[in-house]
Amino acid sequence: MSSERPERAAPDYRAIARESARREGAAIAIASAEPETATRQRMAAAFAGGSFTAWRYDDAYAAAASDPATILAGARAVVCVAVPFAHAPPAGRAPLRGRVSNYAWSADYHVRMREILAGIARALDRAAGAPVTRIACDTAPLAERAFAARAGLGWVGKHTNVISPEFGSFVFLGEIVTTLDIPPDAPLKKTCGACTRCVGACPTGALRGDYTIDARRCISDLTQRTDAIPRELRAFVGDWVWGCDLCQLVCPPTQRASPRADAAFGPGSSAAAFPALLDLLGLRNSEFKRRYRRTALGWRGATVLRRNAAVALGNALDRASVPALERALESDPAPLVRAHIAWALGRIGSPRAFAALLGALPGESDPAVREEIEAAVRSLETFDGSGALGCRRTRSE
Ligand code: SF4
Ligand code: SF4
């Protein structure tokens, strides 16, 4: 009789990861960690073409994002994780409320995502008997949609989001890069086919219909950039003050999905989904930090939110907001915000809005704000035959 012990079968790492994910309401699929050469080329071409200029991406970013070995040396596999987050909007939306994208309604989703990813990574490390993983969740460049599609976790739709057959497209993606040799899953044999609903629903024409996006026109990007929102796009931003969900809301596979999202991703209050615009317009840093520090809105600061509130107020075309806009045009410390307030007053276009613009001009020293005020005034200087100011049709003051 041989004294040699029988060789222990290797643990089923896929099953271990899947079971750990299931307990958290998440789905996983495995991709090989081979670099995504095609994605690197696509990203580099998109950056060079200017589609993402607001984000200062470059070739080095594309190279790093397409190679999991930049996250973990010796990487052999990527465990791609999808976690559904969509919650129904709170009921009873009052007037002059803005709109926040569903992913940003809760306290910072990265915290909960990292917990889920860390739980799966720990299960793999335990089974391997050594640390063999590193997690990625917006913390390191990784082309997560490309790896999720390679793994068959979903397919990338014409709105450029990953669509999970189980959860739809309202999913957070995260990854566990590992040196374990886990056989990859096959990509899905799915595309959007002839559907173009998202393309038609996009107010800015950001979606080209060929599975690519011009991020410079996307409201989600426009509300997160730190410089001026191009004037010609402001009217299309509508009531969004952070992100935009329109293309995903009309997406049939997303509408058909009925995932149960983690309670941690739900809105704590109606204001988390629909913040009061006049309140946002006056938001200063101390209150901003108290209110938004722990949310996905927390990283851009109060100035960006005040700018976005000004644009949404302009688009609300409600004269009730003119006195607050007038005060903020005189007192807001940020030229970026004053410039967008000037635009909002010009868009509302009531006699009082016109007077507020004229009244602010002599005291305004910032050239960019002066230029916005003058443009807004010019847009209102349309006189009929009697010399009366031709005002826009807006709700009553
Ligand atoms: S998020 Fe909004 S603006 Fe951006 S592509 Fe989708 S519908 Fe268009
Ligand atoms: S709306 Fe239609 S075309 Fe757009 S991502 Fe969804 S399925 Fe694809």
What does this structure look like?
- With 397 residues, the protein is an alpha+beta fold.
- The chain has two domains: 9-184, no CATH class; 275-397, Leucine-rich Repeat Variant.
- Helices cover 41% and strands 9% of the residues.
- It is built from 18 helices and eight strands.
- It has helices at 13-23, 37-48, 59-65, 109-128, 144-151, 197-201, 219-222, 231-237, 246-249, 252-256, 270-273, 277-281, 285-292, 302-316, 322-331, 335-348, 351-360, 367-380, and strands at 27-32, 77-84, 99-100, 133-136, 155-156, 162-163, 171-178, 240-242.
- It has a four-stranded antiparallel beta sheet with strand order 1-2-7-4, with helices on both faces. The protein has a two-stranded parallel ribbon with strand order 3-8. Strands 5-6 form a two-stranded antiparallel ribbon.
- A hairpin with a 5-residue loop joins strand 5 (155-156) and strand 6 (162-163).
- Helix 15 (322-331) runs antiparallel to helix 16 (335-348), helix 15 (322-331) packs parallel to helix 17 and helix 17 (351-360) runs antiparallel to helix 18 (367-380).
- The longest helix has 20 residues, at 109-128.
- The model is unreliable at 383-397 (pLDDT under 50).
- Bound molecules: iron/sulfur cluster (2 copies).
- One iron/sulfur cluster binds next to helix 6 and helix 10.
